[in-house]
Amino acid sequence: MEALHYEALLKFLLAFWFVAVAKAECDLSDQQRGAIDAEALKLLQSVELGTYDSIQGTLYFNQLPGIGNPDGKYGVVDLPASTRPLSFNAYCRKMAKQFPQIMDQERRFCNLNFAMASSDALVWNACLPPESEYFSLSTVLSLRFQPDSWAPLAQYGDSINQLVVNSTAGKGNLDPFCKTALFIVTADEVTFHGIRTAYTRAGFPMEAINLYPLPAEEINFRHGIWYLNKYDLLAIQFRINGGLDQAAVGAYLAANQTVHLVRRRRGWAEAALGLAAGLMGRAPAKPARPVPMPPLRPRGDGASEFANHARDLEDLKDAVREFYEGAGYRLLYEVPFRHVVPDLGRCRTDPAYAPTVPPQAAELYNISTPGCDWFTRDALYSFPGDDVDLGLASMTATRVVVAVGLNQVLMGKCNFYNFLFSAGSFGQFEDPDHGFDFSCSDAEGSAHIFGPQIKNVDKMIAWTIARPGVCDDLATHQSSTLSSSTTATRKSRRLDDWNNTQNQSYFDTWCKEISEEQISGLFYAVERKYLEPSTYVGASPDEVIPPSLLVFDIFTDDL
Hints:
By secondary structure, this protein is of the alpha+beta class. 28% of the residues lie in helices and 25% in strands.
């Protein structure tokens, strides 16, 4: 009985521990942060601090399929409709008809937009996420209506990411997970100082406060009547990638957090003057003291992969080709990739500029409107080149595709890596039912079987994508090759170095089977690399070797 008692107690403690870990509570509870918010917002109503009111909103995570990278979660801010112009509702209805796949559910595109006056600030007393490979906060110019309506989806300045964030762990601390941080997004230095003073008086630690500055001269701030002035709409994006404890991250994503739009109270005379200026079409007022804009973080740490690893990567491609030729395939095509680093300043001013989703790609893949696609400066994206042969860059019943590249996390070029392979057709981009994705941690060791003697092979990636049943056939071929007693050749000498256990593990782990219902014909692929550890921003395209897709097909006399 005593043993049963202890067993029951142990089960209870384990269950309690699991719930506690999965919940991953912050060092300050929701109640503690809420009490600080309430006291600070009360202080901001005083004349001494500028007489501000606040509008409460919610930061929530979009977890709907088909929107956003499957291994990335995107937190957005939902503020009351009063923060958006009334006429914007008509625009939303128009967008809903044009893009039903992203507009048909509540809290989609329209709700994440809000307008700011020049003295406004968005304030988030944040619980930071559980341990993750990457997280960041960005402010985005979401919609602009001058000269006509368009969606720049372009970030202002640098992100506040986990390597630079100020939190209750300290300034720019490398362990901010499950800590508390205050984010203040504003173009007005007076507003920032007032909010910072209110929060520190309410008991919030000064070292955990973060300013996200907005460029006062670039934004068409809220004023007058929207129909006449067509001011800009902004959005917040809080990204989380590569959560290490999925249960804890899942609990974090499910728990909404409170944000506040802090707005300086205007007297009747000032409000009337502002309305008159709007009716007359005059330029909106700028902050009396704009916040200074820091220079952008430079890309590049000086370590070039081209000089040190280009030959090694070519050796791996040769080894992959040699293996598949032995299995009855021939290399049909190598899909080249190109790096993309948008000019975000141009993204915000040129409606025709579309580096991340060019017009031809938007039309071909039906994946988005042309534009900059929420690009963050913390990232380096790589896409198939503009000159890709679309007839060869596609999945047929007999083709096998192998993604080959460098493990950029192990190379020290990023904190988080994601390779997405999906159907290139409407409504299927980034939908987990029509493709798959892998990270560097998923792919670690995947290249070893093809060439254990290749220099730095353990820092490379070789992931096979095939039709159902093919992975087992390839494993069988490899096993029979290993057990054969043919005369030693260069191939068989290398094969003798492989063992059957490694071979079986490769095809169990790094060979992904994709049905024709998931992907048929044209495919879409993108490699995303987030946050170079030594520079606190995305890696330099001049220092990183892009990946390749090797397309194989069954050997016939026609090939």
